[in-house]
Amino acid sequence: MKLKLPNPGLDRRIPSYTDLEKMEAEEAGDRPKWDNKAQYMLTCVGFCVGLGNVWRFPYLCQSHGGGAFMIPFLILLVLEGIPLLHLEFAIGQRLRNGSVGVWRSINPYLTGLGIASMLVSFVVGLYYNTIMAWVMWYFFNSFQDPLPWSQCPIDGNRTGLVPECARSSSVDYFWYRETLNASPAIDKSSGLEWWLVLSLICAWVVLYVCCIRGIETTGKAVYITSTLPYIVLTIFLIRGLTLKGSGLNLTTCDLNTLLSEGVEGTGLAFIVFTEAITKMPVSPLWSVLFFIMLFCLGLSTMFGNLEGTVVPLQDLNLLPKNWPKEAFTGLTCLVSFLIALIFVQQSGSYWLALFDNFAASIPLLVIAFCEMFIVVYIYGIDRFNEDIKFMIGHKPNIFWQVTWRVLSPLLILVILIFYFVTKVSQNLTYLVWDPNSNKFPTLAEVEYPSWINGIIFILAGIPSLTIPFFSLFKFIWNRCKGSNHFDGDSISTISDKVKMSVKTAN
Q1: N or C end of the chain: which has fewer CB within 10 A?
Q2: H helix or E strand, kind and range, residue 447
Q3: Degrees, nearest 5: CA angle 367-98-214
Q4: How many domains does the chain have?
Q5: Cβ-proximal residues to 504 (8 Å cutoff; 6+ apart), any chain
Q6: CA 118 to CA 113: how far, in whole Å?
């Protein structure tokens, strides 16, 4: 016996296979498309592999068991990550729509799932592009010999080194004082840092220029943004293998050093790697290459984050319908820049860590579980299998059936519950750069102020609760109108567009 929840009106809300073929023929000349499969694949790779692979993943790996961390990571990658990725690709291609349009087509009560995805993309883009601004700041400072973070500055009396730098290190001082000018607490800040504001402007302008013409521009940009990082990493690997001591066994390295010094994920990229660069000959050249690599990694990921915000905004019809996509993109970049100014004040790095910890954790787990459940038990796994057969010529094998139906949703649910319980039961703390701390230069661990719980609720709670709240709102709205229909939206669906275009052609 197969479980499938009732979903009346589904066939009227989604395009039939005949409609899809007609749409493909009619839109062949007008619809933006990739020049070739390589562009599409590079775009996917660029979105999946980003800055987090350099500044976040290595930190998480070494702080959770080192090489042992790779075992659960690879298991979850195979049983959860890849099945979810394929499911999203397939359902999006079948319904030919963005995150809002896909779930609204399956059932109007599920529109909140698309809105939740849009909110997560928007919030992640806010702090992600701020990291891009930091990368640009370091890139601009890389055209100096010696590099500005390779040695401590002289104090005002020119009698010795700046005490704060002398007590820590030159790379620490350049990051926390020269770049961030970090305050000792998240609720203490004396304003914006102009050099970071200018870098943030540059980051959003570059992103807007690259995205303004859609895939005609980004499709060509990914040739550089998605391939250059691997070229640079290969160069660094070859260079590393030629250094003295490169043949030593990794077990001789003290992996606890990073933890004892209190380095966060961003510190790994802007402290550990930058210090390694200063030990290399012609260090400005290596620094330029390294930060070009980081910028390319971040830019290709931001293409996806921006699209994940702009397309749903258009689908929701919240702004004038006659607005071109360039206007939506420009407005999104402007609003994002204004909100992201919170990250370029003296306490900005603490705010960024807060956003990173909560904006892309619980909401993404909730969204992933809902997507799996909806496709399998509301849209229907049998219908989904037929859709895939229509698109690629054969049904998915037993691996996909088992993961989509049982394993992936179950794993996500277990992780979600475990993560939620863990976070609720622990005291929330963060690390600060405080020269007055007794443990300085180790980062001091302090508790968040009580009001930060409200910010956490906004970051993690609102996107998650958007899904049930929109369904409730839709139910009440339909009741007030005296309608019990599940497909009574005033917004036209894809099927309506197809029928109208066919009627016009006839």
Answers
A1: N
A2: strand 444-447
A3: 125
A4: 1
A5: none
A6: 9
Residue 398 has pLDDT above 60, yes or no: yes
Closest listed residue to residue 435, CA positions, set 172, 184, 166: 184
Given a cut of 60, whether residue 262 has pLDDT beyond it is: no
- The pLDDT of residue 319 is 73
Q: Quick check: is 1 in a domain?
A: no
Q: Is the pLDDT of residue 243 over 70?
A: no
250 assigned to some structural domain: no
Q: Is residue 5 part of a domain?
A: no
Residue 191 lies in a domain: yes
Residue positions in the annotated binding site for Na(+)?
46, 49, 53, 256, 297
Q: What is the pTM of this model?
A: 0.84
Dist CA 430 CA 449 (whole Å): 10
C-alpha to C-alpha distances, 318 to 105, 310, 328, 447, nearest whole angstrom: 18, 11, 11, 39
Peptide bond into 449 cis (omega under 30): no
| Mean pLDDT score, 292-310 | 83
Average pLDDT over all residues of the chain: 82
**Which structural domain range is residue 62 located in?**
10-243+255-505
Kindly report which listed range (139-148, 236-245, 334-343) carries the lowest average pLDDT score.
Answer: 236-245
Residue 420 pLDDT: 86
| Helix (H) or strand (E) run with residue 432 in it | strand 429-432
Picking from 462, 478, 379, 419, the residue whose alpha carbon sits closest to that of residue 112 is 462
